[in-house]
Hints:
Elements: E1 3-7, E2 10-13, E3 18-25, E4 34-39, E5 46-51, E6 57-59, E7 67-72, E8 77-82, E9 91-99, E10 107-110, E11 114-119
Parallel strand pairs: 2-11
Antiparallel strand pairs: 1-3, 3-8, 4-5, 4-9, 5-6, 7-8, 9-10, 9-11
Amino acid sequence: EVQLVQSGGGLVQAGESLRLSCTASGFTFGSYGIGWFRQAPGKEREGVSCIMEDGSIFYADSVKGRFAISTDDSKNTLYLQMNSLKLDDTAEYFCAADLWGCSSYEAHYWGQGAQVDVSS
Length: 120
C-alpha cells in the first residue's frame, strides 16, 4: 500500500527553524510530483512548496527565501527546511505525492499531518 509518514513537527519560537520529513513506502518519489501543503484553523489549505513531475520547483510567496524543499532519493524521503519561522507559519503541514498542482488540494496521496506551532 502507498503510505506517506511524516515527522518533525513541534513548537518553535519565531525566528527559529524546523525540519519536516516525509518518508514514502509503496512507491518511489522520483515517479511523482511531491510537495508540502499547510492548513491553519479557519483558513483554506495552501500549497507551500512542490517539486512537480518535470522537476520544476514552486514556493508560495509567503515562504520564498525562508523555506527549502529537498529529497533524499536513496531514503525515499522528502524534507521541508523551515527557517526564520513566523507566527503566520503556524499550521498543520501535510506532505503529498502525485501532484497536479501546488495551490490547495491537488494531490492523490497525503501524509498524516504534522502540527507546527510558532510562538512569540
